[in-house]
Automatic annotation (TrEMBL), chains A, B:
<dbReference type="InterPro" id="IPR023753">
    <property type="entry name" value="FAD/NAD-binding_dom"/>
</dbReference>
<keyword id="KW-0285">Flavoprotein</keyword>
<comment type="similarity">
    <text>Belongs to the class-III pyridine nucleotide-disulfide oxidoreductase family.</text>
</comment>
<dbReference type="Pfam" id="PF02852">
    <property type="entry name" value="Pyr_redox_dim"/>
</dbReference>
<keyword id="KW-0676">Redox-active center</keyword>
<protein>
    <submittedName>
        <fullName>Coenzyme A disulfide reductase</fullName>
        <ecNumber>1.8.1.14</ecNumber>
    </submittedName>
</protein>
<feature type="domain" description="Rhodanese">
    <location>
        <begin position="463"/>
        <end position="550"/>
    </location>
</feature>
<dbReference type="InterPro" id="IPR001763">
    <property type="entry name" value="Rhodanese-like_dom"/>
</dbReference>
<dbReference type="InterPro" id="IPR050260">
    <property type="entry name" value="FAD-bd_OxRdtase"/>
</dbReference>
<dbReference type="InterPro" id="IPR016156">
    <property type="entry name" value="FAD/NAD-linked_Rdtase_dimer_sf"/>
</dbReference>
<dbReference type="Pfam" id="PF00581">
    <property type="entry name" value="Rhodanese"/>
</dbReference>
<dbReference type="InterPro" id="IPR036188">
    <property type="entry name" value="FAD/NAD-bd_sf"/>
</dbReference>
<keyword id="KW-0274">FAD</keyword>
<dbReference type="InterPro" id="IPR036873">
    <property type="entry name" value="Rhodanese-like_dom_sf"/>
</dbReference>
<dbReference type="InterPro" id="IPR004099">
    <property type="entry name" value="Pyr_nucl-diS_OxRdtase_dimer"/>
</dbReference>
<dbReference type="GO" id="GO:0050451">
    <property type="term" value="F:CoA-disulfide reductase (NADPH) activity"/>
</dbReference>
<dbReference type="Pfam" id="PF07992">
    <property type="entry name" value="Pyr_redox_2"/>
</dbReference>
Amino acid sequence: MKVVIIGAVAGGASAAARARRLDESAEIVLIERGADPSFANCGMPYYIGGEIESREKLIVTSAGMLHDRYRLDVRVRQEALRIDRQAKTVRVRRLENGAEYDESYDKLILSPGAAPIRPELPGIDHPKVYTLRNLDDADLLHAATMGAKRAVIVGGGFIGVEMAENLVRRGVETTLIERNDQILTPWDAEMVAPAAAALRSAGVTLKLGAEAEAFEPQDDGGVTVALKSGEQLSADFVVMCIGVRPENALAKAAGLAIGERGGIRVDETMRTDDPDIYAVGDAVETFDSVTGKPTQIPLAGPANRQGRIAADNCFGRESRYRGTQGTAIVGACGVTAAMTGLSEKACRRLGVAFEKVYVHPASNAGYYPGAEGMTLKLVFDPENGRVLGAQGVGGKGVDKRIDVLAMALQAGMTVYDLEESELCYAPQYGSAKDPVNMLGFVAAGLLRGDHPVEHAHRLLDCELGDSFVLDVRSPGEHAAGAVPGATNINIDELRERLGELPKDRRIVAYCKVGMRGYLATRLLRQHGFDAVNLSGGFTKYERFVAARAEATPKMAPSGR
Amino acid sequence: MKVVIIGAVAGGASAAARARRLDESAEIVLIERGADPSFANCGMPYYIGGEIESREKLIVTSAGMLHDRYRLDVRVRQEALRIDRQAKTVRVRRLENGAEYDESYDKLILSPGAAPIRPELPGIDHPKVYTLRNLDDADLLHAATMGAKRAVIVGGGFIGVEMAENLVRRGVETTLIERNDQILTPWDAEMVAPAAAALRSAGVTLKLGAEAEAFEPQDDGGVTVALKSGEQLSADFVVMCIGVRPENALAKAAGLAIGERGGIRVDETMRTDDPDIYAVGDAVETFDSVTGKPTQIPLAGPANRQGRIAADNCFGRESRYRGTQGTAIVGACGVTAAMTGLSEKACRRLGVAFEKVYVHPASNAGYYPGAEGMTLKLVFDPENGRVLGAQGVGGKGVDKRIDVLAMALQAGMTVYDLEESELCYAPQYGSAKDPVNMLGFVAAGLLRGDHPVEHAHRLLDCELGDSFVLDVRSPGEHAAGAVPGATNINIDELRERLGELPKDRRIVAYCKVGMRGYLATRLLRQHGFDAVNLSGGFTKYERFVAARAEATPKMAPSGR
């Protein structure tokens, strides 16, 4: 058996190692266009920023080691030019000297990855307009930051945000421009407002709703970024981080099926429509494990799993990919944003019925030093309570809760299961009622009809008609900032002051994070009032106000 | 409806708050023997040690606040003396003046907790022999640590370990004695060896297999602890942490059913055998959610959930407790030990068939600064791969992985599901193949027969007959320490040196943590050798050697 693998990072490397473990006698050839197989591409921004000091740390493994340990035939700086599916050969070019040869295969695994998008804008070919894909790029950017004063990052996705954190760490005055009205667009806007705030606090100039339209050379060797708004940003260099495009040219030319958004089509065994050709990683169109719909998610975890599965199937092992649930995490200057499954906006886009709740718990017991706050959002099926997705933002412990919720999603668990989850508790690590339990309580209570909720964006959009807005916090909290027009009655006095409330209007009760509002809702409903709780309280309301302030006026609010 | 709740901490407080949310008109009376309702008992060791500076932080809520917000009638410093089930009254004594009265109830919820065990040893009533249950105890211990030079802690469970950490933090020379041959007995011995080592590194004198038999007063007001071994330990004070006993006197006197180990018997609704009396928290016998067998687990999380469920059922809501899975965590001088579900020894004790694997991953990508090591152990069903339990020990990220595995256990997931779990990955937070995935790969590979494993304790117990022990690490690693009698062939040279290996003997291959050993096993089996991988590698082997060295000679090894 001879397996040829094109692309030696993440998915390709995983496939190759798995192939060897499955078959000592197989011939395994890895063709890699770059200089290094299996480098740590997720670490590159941190090498550029100096958090990872040594470049060598990014080299996960060498071609020599892959040969010694796995007897892999690794050919770096070689490029696959075309596939002859009839002859079952790949045409390969040695990049050093341009020489070409044909390599035959029994099974072919494509792991070409995805290329950073470089839009066809005037001046895009300026040498100081960088992208970040491989170690060569990282070297260029590492050098560019030395002595640089100002940089512009175009695109506020994962890489854009990580680059912004790392450029300010290097002392580079950094402007991040993002076309949308929020950074990190897989998340819902209100959930990433704290990440945006953290970038700003760290010194990043963040411009939302801003789009580059041209790059002009400066006399000093720098580049001026012209925005559609007419603004001009002067920079020593620019990093384009507006996303990636699957490297499908080889597959396309070979006549393999390609998805609508450019990903190579594969089935659950990672096989393309050619029975001897598999494809894995950022280049493929896979499917969303929640909705079953096609998706493209360029992340390392899924790529590794897919590589393993493709190798299994090459060697006749039954092994199926279960889809991608979109678990992702990013650090932004001390704030962590993490998510799994469907966001609210994904539900809307796909027409999936959902309900949502927010909680604002602490990472661990509030009485133990060092507890940090977080916001969690749970999106769930309004009929049966099944978890559809979760998002978190805040300090320590966000990654833990989203991982726990990722398991709940994978297992098809419901909000009722989250109520009963038994998680680690000691005061340094969590709370006797963990944030995940709290999500369960709030969501299950909502489904049981115990405490209907209302959402801040509906208050902001004036969609709540003549509702009576009731602030049940203390007068001091109320005085420090409140929803306009709200009446303040401290929860502790509410039972004595029921006479001040209207019986013929809906009452939207709120407190700081939702707990007292929940109690007020329970109390008022039992006294015959039509009361609902403002989900996530004033904290969430302020978050929405902030997200709206970020949004450019030209964009319509995304209200429900 | 009138609900009387006896005991206002954790379970009782949760029941009371839930009861009010369910019924505004109910009369809710909380009888609490101590001075404070709902204090943070899990925080007390850290207050004594000074990590929590202010005593006020331990007061979760006051009686006044519980009245104002929840209209609870909280009666502190009052003790329930007996229950008249016919009359449906409780006899209560005011501790200040001894006055007694009867309080009637419609529903009664017992949340009396569990009392620290004070064994009947000579001198146990010495005033400097403390236990730790409530804030009065914490005050005494807090005062005792001031100016104290030496302390003895009896018992190496959760509280004993936490007290040890906190006394050395206060600069007190601390000896911890534990009757068993390991601390933290819910864990398997080899899994808590690093926690014991951390205590010792921090200055704790740890004596395993040591039992106190008497306490003698010293002239200076201190106390001498006489051990069964004849050793005498001099101390300014002693803390007894040998466990707790359910407070069942009230229930017993009322004729309610009591379990074999003293816990009040309840059904899934938390109801005792009296239809109007419920019981929750540390005082009850509940059931293990994995085995379905009776168990007593005095932890705050389950107590809170049970309180909520008891209140639900008092008010006619269908709500059932799903059992306790034994998720627990403890910090020990920088090392975290966490677990969920069944340990290996619990499986043996209960006769549950199991298989087990170990991995030694890092908390996050090794190339990112600050990654910390951990050991994870997974116990699973050898037939269908269902997760039965997990244990972790090490630095940061242990709590996260055990929480993730607690969800897997709750959901009935298998090792095959763990292979496919999609968890948060960025280099600061995890690895593209998360430690949880690694557990899945190793366990599933074992069940598929890809790489049979052997266990270190069997090597140590010479149960492996004439097996050929093969060290596939580098010569340098081998020279620095190896399994006695092992032959060293670097994995990278193994294919060329197959001739040096026996075809007629079993080969036990090992490396540092199991990864190269796995590869060697795959390689050798394909070449016709009967090879197995030493689970967890030399790291785990050394852990077993250390755990054995700790154990007293009188105890038989717990070998399989």
